[in-house]
Amino acid sequence: MRFDWERWAVVGPKDDTGLGRQAESIRAVLGIGGQLAPPSERLLDRPLAGPGDRRLDPRCPRDEVRELLRGLQGVLVLERPNWHRELLPLSRELGVRTVCAPNWEWFAARDPLWRHCELFVCCSRFALGVVRRCGWRNAVGVGPWPLPLGRFPARRVGGPARIFVHNGALMDPFDRKGTHDVIRAFRRVGRPDLRLIVHLQREAELRDLDQRVDVRVGNLEEPAELYAEADVAVQPSKIEGVGFLVLEALASGLPVVTTDAPPMNEYVAQRELRVAPRWFKRRAFQTGWIPQAHRRLPRPSDLAAKIAWCAEHDLAGIAAANRAWAEASFDPGRVRREWEEALGR
User: In the chain, at which residue ranges do the beta strands (DSSP E only) sit?
Assistant: First the structure.
């Protein structure tokens, strides 16, 4: 099959959430021509970019969905099958290819709509394992989620770290990104010559702050701005589907401190930077419909030790290795070939 990516559409929100960023980045790398954009559930919708972008009202009639699919070669559905209950069945009926890129922590494997999905494309070994263990054999693995590397200029990091950065994104009651953990661990290190930048997309109540912590609130025009002045990114996420914020920091050539749990530990090669999780028995979400979803909490003492280690060691080698890995992993020609081979199986 010849892939005409201009005649494909991503299905997912057009906003500044992680899902919105996933849609934006994969369109840029693969050259996908359009997007069917359901309403954002957490932030304001961004404007449509061109004639290939359409709003997808979850309550619109079947005929309207049929019209949205007219002329498409395929749809790449992010995370879930039910952005509109008729989307996948109608796509199959019309001969439009149906591909899903699932975020494993939201993968509701028993949803009957999945039977209309031809292929699951998983961007981590862990996600692939989850989907297959749930009984779906039409799943393939590819490399990490595609990033447009040109948007992440390489940082030249050398010597021990002095400035650390943490992206708390949209803080939720579970504190998924581990923002409170980062602040507490940084306070434990206690060195007056260190500085921590905490970036949030909206205001949140933060505790244990001191004069070394700089809290910044608001969306950035370019995600690389967050990494422009830091030496190390600290992202001890408790649960991640793609690990987008880890990947962006790696793409910028920053050393990344993260939780030693998948998928983050598939990307961060240095054991010195992976924080041991502590044991606990609560699931991430109090629902039974996503049994595989569970948090991995970073061990506070080990997180502080990892921050201190970065402040005591020359990080130039790690930074150079991270950027080299990103240049190989996110080469657009290689990514397109890998996706086309996966979809052509």
Answer: 8-11, 34-37, 53-55, 74-78, 97-101, 119-122, 139-141, 163-169, 195-200, 213-217, 232-235, 256-259, 274-275, 277-278, 297-298
Over range 149-155, report the average pLDDT: 93
Pick the closest to residue 106 from 284, 236, 314, 257 (CA basis): 284
Beta strands across the sheet bearing 119-122: 53-55, 34-37, 8-11, 74-78, 97-101, 119-122, 139-141
Mean pLDDT to the nearest integer, 203-217: 94
CB 199 within 8 A of CB 221: no
Would you give the end-to-end CA distance of the chain in angstroms?
10
Q: Are 152 and 251 in contact (CB under 8 A)?
A: yes
Residues with Cβ within 8 Å of residue 302, at least 6 apart in sequence: 275, 276
Cβ pair 202, 317 in contact under 8 A = no
For residue 170, which of 103, 245, 101, 262 has the smallest C-alpha distance? 245
Helical axes 332-344 vs 18-30, angle rounded to 10°: 90
For residue 197, the cross-strand partners are: 165, 214
pLDDT at 283 over 90: no
Structure tokens at 190: 């206690």
State the DSSP code for 150: G
d(CA 101, CA 79): 6
Claim: this prediction has a pTM higher than 0.85: yes
**DSSP 8-class letter at 222:** S
